[in-house]
Amino acid sequence: MAEDSDLEKTESATPRRRQKAREEGQVARSRELVSFALLSAGFFGAWGLSDQIGGHLEGMLRGAFRFDHASVFDTNRMLIGAGTTSMEGLRALLPILILTGLAALVAPIALGGWLLSSKSLEPKWNRLNPIEGLGRVFSLNGILQLGMSLAKTLVVGVIGSLAFWNHKDDVLALVTQPATFAIASGAHLIAVCCATTVAGMFLIAALDVPYQIWQYEKKLRMTKEEVKREHRENEGDPHVKGRIRAQQRAISRRRMMSKVPKADVVVTNPTHFAVALQYTDGKMRAPKVVAKGVNLVAARIRELAVENNVPMLEAPPLARALYYNVRLDAEVPGVLYSAVAEVLAWVYQLRRFNTHGGAEPVKPDDLDVPAELDKRRPIADEDDDIEDIEDVEEVNTNPRAGNDARNDGGRA
């Protein structure tokens, strides 16, 4: 499909995509890096352990060329001698085998990390399809792999040939030298040729590693639709989440509204803001905000207050200060104690008046509200008390958070 073409895959792989690729055994690997590591381990191992290997080889040669008349016609002694020589050769090559084995393990890990996946070992029958096989051979990646192989052969061949050509006189002079000196000179020439070959492999590996990383990243690249689909799978459908969020807000608001009939007073703006306060002597350290809102929510709070005979007081500065600076179910901060105390005193006087009669109490006016708490912000068309309602939901599910919120009720 066009949406899955390489031209459409413009987005970098997500962490989930990378993890899934690793689970399937797909990691960046460089064959040239492994070849360079094996060749280097063999060369430097042979160079560093040349004295030890030479001693073992000398023992092998001495044992191979030392025989008597009895050993020639005794088959058992010939087999024993062959076994001894084989063990001596194994001891000579064992360090090299260990080094190359470690190189074969470490080289892939250096690029793609340690990975053991059973999925990479599962048989894939589509690889037996000759048509798909020809497609892979003649694909861009197949052509690039062929080019890399030819370049590797060419570079190694040219470097080896140049090294041999530069020392051709030394090679021809070996036949004129004593055997001991000729062997040492020959070993030196072999080491020089091997070192130049290792240098050539290093050059090839240095070119192949960035290419394999680029090829791996290109293979993991994703389309914008794939990124969106994965995001929806991880985070959920935004439309569904929006509906759930709206339902949660409605439930939280209904729970808040259920506390309005139990409030002692509702402080209003009078039209935009409404804040319900409650105080129980002996159970609360200070009055707390049990409901608040603007616009439609504020209107509903006022309606419930009228229906349940909860006193309402028009005090715009105090209403704004309480709304913006006190969270739901949080205590009134100390800087507003004086103003709230006057309001509650009026409420208690109003209750005595309604019960026993007498002079009607005067509504408090000119309350002491610090100017920095009276934030005259623009009122949005929609209710903007949602965040505080959701904060209360979180506090209700976390007792420790609830204690912190009550202790920090004056925080804006």
Q: Any overview of this molecule?
A:
- With 412 residues, the protein is mainly alpha-helical.
- 64% of the residues lie in helices and 5% in strands.
- The chain has 16 helices and four strands.
- The protein has helices spanning 15-23, 31-48, 50-65, 69-73, 75-112, 130-137, 140-166, 168-173, 179-220, 224-235, 238-257, 296-307, 316-325, 337-356, 386-396, 399-407; strands at residues 265-268, 273-278, 288-294, 312-314.
- A four-stranded mixed beta sheet has the order 3-2-1-4, with helices on both faces.
- Strand 1 and strand 2 (273-278) form a beta hairpin.
- Helix 2 (31-48) packs across helix 5, helix 2 (31-48) packs antiparallel against helix 9 and helix 7 runs antiparallel to helix 9.
- Mean pLDDT is 76; it is low at 381-412.
Summed up:
By secondary structure, the protein is mainly α. It has helices spanning 15-23, 31-48, 50-65, 69-73, 75-112, 130-137, 140-166, 168-173, 179-220, 224-235, 238-257, 296-307, 316-325, 337-356, 386-396, 399-407; strands spanning 265-268, 273-278, 288-294, 312-314.
Task: List the keywords.
412 residues, mainly alpha, name from scop, 2 domains, 4 strands, disordered C terminus
Measured between the Cα atoms of the first and last residue, the distance is 54 Å
Instruction: Give the helix level as a range of percent.
Output: 55-70%
Q: What fraction of the residues are assigned to beta strands by DSSP?
A: under 5%
Question: How many domains in all?
Answer: 2
Number of strands: 4
Transmembrane segments: 92-116, 137-165, 185-211
Region (Disordered): 1-25, 359-412
Main location: membrane
Keywords: Bacterial flagellum biogenesis, Bacterial flagellum protein export, Cell membrane, Cell projection, Cilium, Flagellum, Membrane, Protein transport, Transmembrane, Transmembrane helix, Transport
